[in-house]
């Protein structure tokens, strides 16, 4: 659920000198990063979130640290940012403060989508909304320590948000392929790049969101899922891109927690560029592609399994192709938006690095080949 407490959106109406501005100019961005708390000696998760979050040093305006569903997790949320450098500064600060707080309690924060080794399950120690989630989903969340990188992008209003999400749907698997960083689970290599997405697929309504003709249809569907007992409340859904219930923002929930700040920033800038492109297409009257739900699910599953290795699926074309080519198509799609924002060079360089050095999942596997201590050092060395 979004924790941004003020209105996101465009930065105001165009002035006389701004009539040629791009439709998506001035969109705000923010990021929430979830992390695991590990015992630095064993690599197992430890339930010390409350102690770690108690009394941390001040953050930048609008930024915050939070608990997550399990006491083995913590979250750093940026404030509302206008540019890449401002967001990067806040991401670095949030990670640094969590690291400082964690080491005071003999633990470390790990930038991974799932844990290598889990400690005891912590079901039953929650109250409030987290307690209702425990009651509803039971054993599905008893050891659910999945961590994501959630990107928030401002739009003019919630009606527009629904229309934009329709345009985002074909590109969500490509964002996942770039972000896969959860290959391990309970001491085993799952064979997947993102086991977190596999875990999420157990929940009702997970994955690429359906097409919705308007805001009323979207809200009606969420309300029906609540009435059916599948969701705790109308602020919850498991779709990987969704409009906020309260604010004019879109939340991308597709990426695993990023191994580095720059990989988190890459997700934020690509997400904003996709929203920029969607707004431009809407202004031109370009219809959102109507995807096969099953092909979209296949594309997401393939991205979760293989990341940038081997073949991917382009859901818009309903074709299998090299994963690298799917990503190239994504960059071609958003290139004008990235250029408008001044983000193109950074995004190109980060994608080039991932293709040459490997995703987080690939780098985790290389590290664990040198032994568990090497993996722990890598996961905890990017604060």
TrEMBL record:
GO terms for molecular function: ATP binding; glutamate-cysteine ligase activity. Keywords: ATP-binding, Ligase, Nucleotide-binding. Gene3D superfamilies: 3.30.590.20. Pfam families: GCS2 (PF04107). It catalyses: L-cysteine + L-glutamate + ATP = gamma-L-glutamyl-L-cysteine + ADP + phosphate + H(+). It is an enzyme of class 6 (ligase). Its EC number is 6.3.2.2. It comes from the Bacteria. InterPro entries: GCL_type2/YbdK_subfam, GCS2, Gln_synth/guanido_kin_cat_dom, YbdK. Residues 1-25 are annotated as: Disordered. The keyword Secreted does not apply. GO terms for biological process: modified amino acid biosynthetic process. Belongs to the glutamate--cysteine ligase type 2 family. YbdK subfamily. ATP-dependent carboxylate-amine ligase which exhibits weak glutamate--cysteine ligase activity. HAMAP family: Glu_cys_ligase_2. This is Putative glutamate--cysteine ligase 2. The lineage of its organism: Bacteria, Bacillati, Actinomycetota, Actinomycetes, Pseudonocardiales.
